[in-house]
Write a structure and sequence with these properties.
With 507 residues, the protein is an alpha/beta fold. It is built from 20 helices and eight strands. It has a domain of 304 residues: TIM Barrel, CATH 3.20.20. Strand 1, helix 8 and strand 2 form a beta-alpha-beta unit. The protein starts with 7 loop residues before the first helix and ends with a helix. It catalyses: L-proline + a quinone = (S)-1-pyrroline-5-carboxylate + a quinol + H(+). Converts proline to delta-1-pyrroline-5-carboxylate.
Length: 507
């Protein structure tokens, strides 16, 4: 395989974004890119100060848009929930109230992880309770038919929301599990094909489900060491975009790692082939694919596989592959700028999903155990600022050139800032390249408010058998406990609308 690495120093010398001229869009009948294909990358040498200048401009531009938040109406509960039945509104209010009580969440997590679940009768009772409460609220369904019905309901009847479909399987440990998960992800694309056009916005995949976690850790170690020592040779490495910046955490790899064994190289190739099969399936179905971000211990390998696949599949103005940037990481802005810049320089349209991040507790614990500073921003305000600045940069970029952006946020202020930015640039210039997203079952007022403001809005919709989805639900419960307990806007507006309907019914 040909080896070409994009040099960060060369990227920092690039003077300006060089957008390519879009060509006619390839259809789903396009020939499949070859997994061994390689492209020549030539970057022009320019002043090194461009990254610092862009970072400063991001902050200034974001601050200029902070106060312009009049485009989203989150006060008219009747209009926001006009497409939601009273029965569903009642159930949603009850489930969110339960989920907002931290003692309930703690008890539920203890029960699900306890040996009590080994008792068949007890397990059946617990799973039945979970299925008819949290599962039905946060998940799309157990099988294809149930999922299709949920998506249709979400997209029709005035709701007008789209679905980001994810088969909610967690980590895989061997190739047999990876192959099984691959079939489930390919079936997910088939579900999308069976639904009305545009009702499914994205297929979501966790790479740790189709490539063994231990192998992702090994590959990440090797990529980090090569970043530290450019003479360190990785013979299996394909063309990719920058996956590190000068402030990226590298403490996971404190000594020179051993090269991949022949078996590990073979397994890495298998993992990449699984990803490419999903890419091709998504290309044929005309549904883009987004790769979720994970722990920093494996994120370098995830970015490497994501970007190398994007180079193969993202052609002209047809973005098949999206990567994910976690804004709670201190290096998020620089990595986004570097990857975006490199993609422009080689004529690859790149899509990014921007999230805040989901592994705060474990990341801080790992860094502390190794005696290093946390890779997470020191305050939530810094995370918010980073998110908004990254969003501002990308909205500017897609308004004036190639690329696409998914803003996955439950933060109302971030939504208002992004909407104001889009209006300042001309909403028509970004509306088809910009998607807002929230978790299914959460932040409904924000989702409906953004939809009413004229934007494309998706709900992240996990599905699968209850027992398979349980690990996903436990992880989400841990990640979002603060959000669910601190944010009462959803429940306030739901109660307001329920009171209005009750009053109208009585009168």
């Amino acid at each position: 395989m040909a080896i070409r690495a994009l040099s960060q120093k060369k990227l920092l010398k690039s003077l300006s974004l060089r957008y390519f001229s879009p060509k006619p869009l390839n259809t789903a009948a396009s020939a499949s890119p070859s997994a061994s294909s390689s492209i020549s990358i030539n970057l022009t040498e320019k002043p090194e100060s461009i990254l610092q200048n862009q970072l400063a401009a991001l902050s200034a531009n974001t601050n200029a848009n902070t106060n312009n938040s009049s485009y989203i109406n989150l006060h008219d509960a009747e209009k926001l929930f006009s497409s939601v039945s009273t029965t569903k509104l009642l159930r949603a209010t009850a489930n969110l109230h339960l989920a907002s009580m931290e003692p309930i969440v703690d008890l539920g997590m203890w029960v699900m992880n306890s040996k009590l679940m080994d008792m068949e009768v007890f397990r059946d009772i617990v799973l039945a309770f979970v299925k008819h409460t949290f599962y039905e609220h946060f998940c799309a369904g157990e099988n294809a038919l149930a999922t299709e019905n949920t998506v249709r309901s979400l997209n029709s009847g005035g709701a007008g929301l789209r679905a980001m479909l994810v088969y909610a399987v967690e980590y895989a440990s061997d190739n047999q599990s990876c192959d099984r998960n691959l079939e489930a992800f390919l079936d997910t694309v088939e579900i999308a094909k069976s639904l009305p056009p545009s009702s499914v916005s994205f297929i979501i995949v966790k790479l740790s489900a189709i490539c063994p976690m231990k192998l992702l850790e090994r590959v990440s170690d090797l990529l980090r060491w090569q970043y530290k020592d450019s003479s360190f040779n990785l013979p299996w490495k394909l063309d990719t975009l920058p996956i590190f910046s000068d402030i990226s955490p590298t403490y996971h790899t404190l000594k020179r790692p051993e090269p991949l064994t022949l078996e590990e190289e073979h397994d890495l190739q298998l993992g990449h082939q699984r990803l490419l099969k999903i890419c091709q399936k998504c290309l044929d179905a005309n549904v883009p694919l987004t790769i979720d971000a994970e722990h920093t211990s494996v994120q370098p390998a995830i970015d490497y596989l994501t970007y190398s696949s994007a180079i193969m599949y993202n052609k002209y103005d047809n973005i098949v592959m999206y990567g994910t940037i976690q804004a709670y990481l201190k290096d998020a802005k620089e990595r986004l700028l570097l990857a975006s810049k490199a993609a422009d320089n080689i004529g690859i349209p790149m899509g990014f999903k921007l999230v805040r991040g989901a592994y705060m507790s474990s990341e801080r614990k790992l860094a502390s155990s190794l005696g290093f500073e946390s890779p997470i921003h020191n305050s939530i305000q810094e995370t918010h600022a980073c998110y908004n600045e990254c969003a501002s940069f990308m909205i500017d970029k897609i308004a004036n050139g190639p690329g696409a952006l998914v803003l996955a946020t439950h933060n109302v202020e971030s939504g208002k800032i992004a909407v104001a930015k889009a209006h300042d640039l001309g909403i028509g210039r970004v509306s088809q390249k910009l998607e807002f997203a929230q978790l299914y079952g959460m932040s409904e007022p924000l989702s409906f408010g953004l939809r009413n403001a004229g934007f494309q809005v998706s709900k992240y919709m996990p599905f699968g058998p209850v027992e398979i989805v349980i690990p996903y639900l436990l992880r989400r419960a841990e990640e979002n406990r603060g959000l669910l307990s601190a944010s009462s806007l959803d429940r306030q507006l739901m109660r307001k609308e329920l009171k209005r309907r009750l009053k109208a019914a009585v009168i």
